[in-house]
Amino acid sequence: MAESTGPTLHEDVPLFCEAVNFTASKTGFNPRLIEKDYFGTVLLAYLAECGIGRLVFKGGTCLAKVHAGFYRLSEDLDFTIPLPVEASRKQCSQAVAPAKKAVSSVAGFVAAMKCTEPLTGANNSTQYIGVITYESRTTGQREPIQVEISVREPLLLPTVTGQARTLLLDPIGGNTMIPAVAVGCIDVIEAMAEKFRAALSRQDVAIRDFYDIDYAAKHLGLDMISDRMIDLVRQKLAVPGNLPVDVGEQRLADLKRQLDARLKTVLRERDFRSFDLDQAIRLAAAMAESVRR
């Protein structure tokens, strides 16, 4: 592959910085996260050009950039390569090999980026995690983007071709500055089923999962406790390696402690104020009761 044909606006540093600051003033998002969202698109475009087999974009960043608009900004990219749960370690390694090569080689195709931690297997080869960094045009510091690829789990719904958008706005006309990038994505219904699974069983409970559930209930027009959603969540929880469902008092107390440190920093003030943690907890509890039946 020749040099990536993805976004190159960052090469014009004065214009890029002006666009970041303009976008911050118009949207209320933190400039550092606006820049990271841009470089996330650069990385997505590069990985899409690499033609990595069955690599499917998922997670909170996919929800924000593809399915739901920019309600929060993320700092990592999550993918899956669907494989049967009984896939061997060798099969997992072979499936991930093209992605490992692409991540390790990024500096040769995207001059602003370099791989600082190659994709490495974790959790009995069910996940591969790596880190790519870029030089911030606004601070001069190197900033990380974590790349995580899940394997040993089939998808339950067909994938969709999504358009990954970038928040950056043109400081002259106020229009979107970067064309959307076509990328294979998890279906939004399955994405929310995974959010419920994470909310109910993640070892280290994360406030962002509950925020995403609350946002989807308010804005995406989804029936969050439908028979279809319950069935998907039940199947997700049945995948080997998931922890038991937990909606206990300690878990809820941990959530409340994360509000300022882990959620407020990635949201606009108005979105943080509108978050209804109690509703998100009620939805999670209703789902927990439903999947146990």
The shape, in one word, is: globular
Give the % helix.
40-55%
Our count of domains comes out at 2
Mean pLDDT: 93
CA gyration radius, whole angstroms:
19 Å
Low-confidence stretches: none
How would you describe this structure to a colleague?
The protein has 293 residues and is α+β, with helices and mostly antiparallel strands. The chain is built from ten helices and seven strands. The protein has helices at 13-27, 31-49, 59-67, 89-104, 188-201, 207-219, 227-237, 249-263, 269-274, 277-292, and strands at residues 56-58, 76-80, 113-122, 127-135, 142-150, 160-164, 181-185. Strands 1-2-5-4-3 form a five-stranded mixed sheet. The protein has a two-stranded antiparallel sheet with strand order 6-7. It starts with 12 loop residues before the first helix and ends with a helix.
Summary tags:
293 residues, 5-stranded mixed sheet, two-stranded antiparallel sheet, 2 domains
Brief account:
This protein is of the alpha+beta class and 293 residues long. Helices cover 46% and strands 16% of the residues.
